[in-house]
Structures are given as C-alpha cells and as structure tokens.
Design brief:
By secondary structure, the chain is an alpha+beta fold. It has helices spanning about 1-20, 70-80, and strands at about 25-35, 40-50, 55-70. It has one domain (about 1-80). It is extended, with a radius of gyration of 17 Å.
C-alpha cells in the first residue's frame, strides 16, 4: 500500500513540475503559522500563470511543502553535532 502511495505522489509531483516549467510567471510564497498546540508550521506554495487552450490566462496555486519548523531546526542542529 505504501508503495502505491509513493507512486501516486511521484505522478502528482511530475505533473505539477511540468506545469510550473511551462509557466511564464511564477512566485514562491512561504507562510509561517502557529497552531493551537503551539506547533510552528511553514507552508511553501508556488503560484504560477498559464494560458489554457483558448488563450485565457489562469492562475494556479500548488503547495510544495508543509514543514514542522521546530522539528526541522532540531534535526538540523542534531546533524551538525
């Protein structure tokens, strides 16, 4: 089951990368928030603009990552020691 999920994830990632590669305009947004359990999370999202088949420009938004900030900082510190 885990193998199937990883295959689906790879297909989604490749489709998103293909769309972003075709984009004429793009931006990367990083937004941090603290949830009610005081866990800091960092969402990284890419916005990009593509033309559809009729020539109409459309804006897309795809999440790239959702990180647990404190866990990632701790892991980085632990690996340096």
């Amino acid at each position: 089951m885990l193998h199937l999920i990883s295959i689906q994830n790879a297909l989604i990632v490749s489709a998103v990368v293909a769309r972003i590669t075709r984009a004429h305009f793009s931006s990367l947004i990083a937004d941090e928030t603290t949830d009610r359990h005081k866990q800091e999370q960092l969402a990284i999202v890419i916005h990009y603009v593509l033309q559809d088949d009729k020539g109409v420009w459309k804006c897309y938004e795809d999440p790239v990552a959702n990180l647990d900030v404190l866990a990632d900082i701790k892991a980085t510190d632990d690996s340096r020691q």
